[in-house]
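Service request form, structural biology core

Requester: graduate student, group of Dr. S.
Request type: structure prediction, single chain
Budget code: on file
Notes: please return the result as structure tokens.

Sequence provided:
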Amino acid sequence: MMENEKNGQLPVESGLPQPVQEEAPQPVDAAPQEEDGKGKKKGKKEKEKKSLGRNILEWIATLLTAVILALVVRSLCFELVKVDGQSMQDTLENHEVMFVTKFEYASVWATWPFWDDVTKTVSSARAAVFGNPARFDVVICRYPGRGDLNFVKRVVGLPGDTVKIEDGYLYVNGEKYDEPYISDEYRVAGGSNGRSFAECTVPKAGAEVKVVWANENHTRFSLEVNGGTWSFPNLSEAENSQGDVIMLIGRSLYLNGKQIESAETLEQVAGQTFTLREDNYIVMGDHRNNSNDSRAQGPIPRTMIYGHAAQVIWPLSSWRGIPNGLDVK
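Core staff response, request fulfilled:
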């Protein structure tokens, strides 16, 4: 007997089948692994690292996108504005914060920060979009020659209206309005503007404007609107048939964006007929004897009204809506 048999093991040549070990199938798309310089296996290709310049450009693009979106929201959707002063008491109190909507009748106001206030009025790109303010809406507006300074006022005169205040009461197109949102103590004479002003017509787009001499020596000028003497310090842009544009800011007349400083230049526009480019509105504060408004500034152009004061949101204890004056009982 052989030695293997003694140990109970069959010889290889016994003819019995031997177990077969099959290799695990390899995936068809498996890529052969490579070794790096350190002898370690490499898997998928490593992602390329971004350069510093590319990272900076991506950050700049992200910031620019955020700024543009913020400007669009602020120009056309909403903005938070803080009340500064007592001119709208008792409707609005000093230091309250308002939620101002833009989508009803926004105006886009594009200027450079380094421009002076007059340049912002003369050279700014302005456009009114959406609808128009209603009578007795509380609005956020700007005044000619006052730059980016915001004012909160109430619209009391629409384009083409005749408006006056007599004995502390407002008359529009001959109709007297009691305005219940105004305290009686605010109707009395006082402040820089007083309680009353004579009847005037609110200019509207298409009104006829003329520059006329105010004395025989031709050293002073005045303006006429639809044949009536213009007594306010400001008037928005008016254009003649040759494309020349005049604008009154304060008591200074501007021609094509430049202040008229010589009699020779004034002679060029004197007697000419200009057409007002856009509608104007009369705005006033509810504190009638303590408000810098259209009584001192004159009617303001439509593009200088850019938001509707809709809600007081701060302080929280004063949270409330700001209704149109006709809804106040």
